[in-house]
Amino acid sequence: MKLDGVTILIGTTKGAFLALGGADRSGWTVKGPFCDGWPINHLAGDSERGVLWAGGGGEWSGAGVWCSTDEGESWNVTRLTKGTMDDWAANDPEFAKMIGWTDTPLPFAEQFSQIWSLGYAHGKLYAGTKPANLLVSNDDGKTWAAMQELTNHESAESWNPGAAGLVLHTIVSDPQNPQKLWVGISAAGVFATEDGGKTWERRNRLSNVEACVHVDHPAAPRDGETGHCVHNMMRAPGKDDLLYQQNHHGVWRSGDGGRSWDDITTGLPSTFGFPIRIHPRDPNMIWTLPLNGDSAGRFPPDAAAAVWRSKDGGDSWQAMRNGLPQESCFFTVLRQAMAGDTQDPAGLYFGTNSGSVFASLDEGENWQEVVRHLPTILAVEVFENT
After folding, report:
1. Across residues 226-231, what is the average pLDDT?
2. Structural domain spans, the chain
3. Fewest CB within 10 A of the end CB: N or C in the chain?
């Protein structure tokens, strides 16, 4: 299997899938499932070497990272923590033989249950876990070390779990500076390091406290800070540390690497959503996919799907609906389930919990369903080999 052109990497509750679109991003062919049907929360890749990674796991299998060094033809797992199957196998030799189990100690024992996010930058592979830890590997995921300076941050005792638990779900790197890294933790907020992880700074401060009207919602901004339940975050292209985040309550922009945040929600139909996406070349063009509310069903407002685009850094917004379902649409798009390519015009892709992937090849103007009938989609990323 040769991944030429654009390939959509899809993580689901029943394994990883690849949707091959070729150089012209059409005629999408789905391959999979891979990773033995594990729940896959996130994927990453290095197109220069044809390497793919898929992170996930759960109560049964424990946590692990799968790796393919042949563009998805074959996959091997590095298990990191134990699961229920280990207890079964330890007490049932026949079951142990059937699954090929050995009693080799796992490196993190029972410290966490899942890998929730992956990030590859400057030759290092990072992984976020549930509960929230940040791991780093220097050998493509064969061995891992915990970045204890974040785990032991002075604020750690105050971190509260979001609805999905205490998860480190977003890893953002600086393409020019390997010492810089940002992570998002629900519900603890944004953390940043500028010295390769030796020290970490919590960055949730509002830029203008008076301009933010208090809202009676547990995830809303208060006490001079954004809500701590950050859902997704990206760094814009360019030399400036321009960040955008979709929060549990609002969409936010920071022009100083997260040290202060501006509310850019005005013009959107709701304050709630999961993903955020930035154009690969234009730092002012962003997309998000609002949902009707955290306790109102978590589907598109008025059950009519739209991706909302801003061309001015969030100062104004426009709904992009052409090709998306406009009646009886009750799907959810999760935090890691929206991605983009670097083609011209840029392509956008999002996956739904109803098993569909929608694609736009013209920066959101028009949409088409390119994959359907998959299991619940947890993550979408793009692998480009052009």
Report:
1. 95
2. 5-385
3. C
